[in-house]
Design the sequence.
């Protein structure tokens, strides 16, 4: 089937006539950071604008108003109180956990995680920040009302305008939470923001078990960009692009993009900063062979990136198609005569003191067994055959 090009492309002729096409590469890493690279300056409009959620369970804290766009800012530093006598806390740049198990007493306990020094997202030139919202996806559970979960955003306690988590006191909650209002509209508000979560219990004689799991922490930045500000978004760092060969089969379509690694300062190079501050492994990319005078693309490819060994003055990013059969995981369970359910686990349901042999004959909860049913048994033990040892002379005379 012939490729149907838009009339604007047909009007300017072939890709090798008139103005030369521009190679454009839009990248959104798994943390939501945006990067735009080309082989020469271009005023093309990016196709990846940051509307993709940074995680499957994360949504914009408030609907994106008309004329605005959304970017995400992430912490570059994190800290947590180490293990203590009754609990502990740990954290990464985008997640964390805090828990405690106290038998009661006269001494309160507090375990906390903190995220700070948020990096500015990559915004277009002339962009104006309109609002900033802290976002956290978390789960909290407790056995006593004396155990509470508290949040502070830029020094504002959660009880007076921080994250809109439910009230404490035997309240378990799970979901995405944000502040009741914007915490600012400047770059300084992003860089100076600090998000702190803590699990603590007050004085009391009763045993306490409380736990909080934070799966995502970031700042949602709403901004506007003036008309025509897309010019200059693309940095001319792209040195070479692959020649794609598309297959109508399960064979994976791949290609390598080469980006310069020379620009920077005396401390570090620009690409080194990007690789250190983001997660390009698995990042989403859109490559376009763009015709400037027609404002349309001759070719557009979508896929994911992986970082190959970084060279002295170049960085190679290997692109693969979105649906890559070679990256499919092996099945979690096998289709066999051996039960795949862990004995005494939640799916098994057995309460017997002796472990089964993961077979139909030894199953203790037959209604939950997960095996291939058959009408024969092949797991017999080995046995020696009783063969005659006396030599018999078969030659007979008559």
Sequence:
């Amino acid at each position: 089937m012939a490729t149907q090009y838009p009339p604007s492309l047909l009007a300017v002729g072939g890709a090798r006539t008139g103005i030369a096409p521009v190679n454009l590469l839009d990248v959104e890493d798994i943390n939501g950071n945006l990067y735009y690279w080309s082989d020469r300056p271009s005023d093309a409009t990016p196709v990846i604008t940051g509307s993709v959620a940074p995680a499957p369970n994360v949504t914009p804290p408030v609907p994106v108003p008309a004329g605005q766009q959304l970017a995400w800012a992430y912490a570059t530093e994190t800290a947590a109180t180490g293990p203590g006598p009754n609990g502990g806390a740990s954290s990464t740049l985008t997640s964390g956990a805090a828990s405690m198990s106290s038998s009661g007493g006269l001494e309160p306990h507090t375990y906390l995680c903190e995220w700070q020094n948020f990096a500015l997202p990559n915004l277009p030139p002339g962009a104006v920040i309109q609002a900033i919202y802290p976002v956290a996806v978390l789960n909290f559970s407790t056995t006593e009302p004396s155990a509470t979960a508290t949040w502070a955003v830029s020094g504002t306690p959660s009880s007076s305008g921080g994250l809109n988590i439910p009230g404490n006191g035997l309240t378990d909650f799970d979901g995405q939470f944000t502040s009741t209002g914007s915490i600012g509209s400047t770059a300084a508000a992003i860089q100076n923001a600090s998000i702190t979560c803590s699990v603590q219990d007050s004085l009391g004689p009763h045993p306490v078990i409380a736990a909080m799991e934070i799966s995502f922490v970031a700042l949602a930045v709403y901004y506007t960009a003036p008309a025509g500000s897309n010019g200059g978004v693309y940095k001319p760092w792209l040195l070479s692009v692959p020649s794609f060969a598309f297959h109508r089969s399960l064979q994976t379509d791949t290609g390598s993009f080469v980006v310069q690694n020379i620009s920077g300062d005396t401390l570090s190079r620009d690409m080194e900063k990007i690789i250190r501050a983001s997660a390009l492994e698995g990042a989403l990319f859109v490559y376009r062979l763009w015709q400037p005078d027609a404002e349309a693309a001759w070719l557009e490819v979508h896929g994911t990136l992986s970082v190959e060994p970084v060279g002295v003055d170049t960085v190679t990013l290997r692109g693969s198609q979105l649906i890559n059969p070679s990256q499919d995981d092996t099945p979690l369970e096998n289709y066999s005569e051996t039960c795949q359910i862990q004995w005494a686990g939640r799916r098994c349901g057995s309460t017997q003191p002796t472990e089964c042999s993961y077979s139909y004959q030894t199953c203790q909860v037959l209604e939950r067994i997960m095996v291939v049913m058959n009408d024969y048994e092949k797991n017999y033990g080995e046995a020696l055959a009783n063969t005659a040892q006396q030599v018999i002379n078969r030659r007979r005379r008559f």
User: Anything to note?
Assistant: The two ends are 91 Å apart (CA to CA).
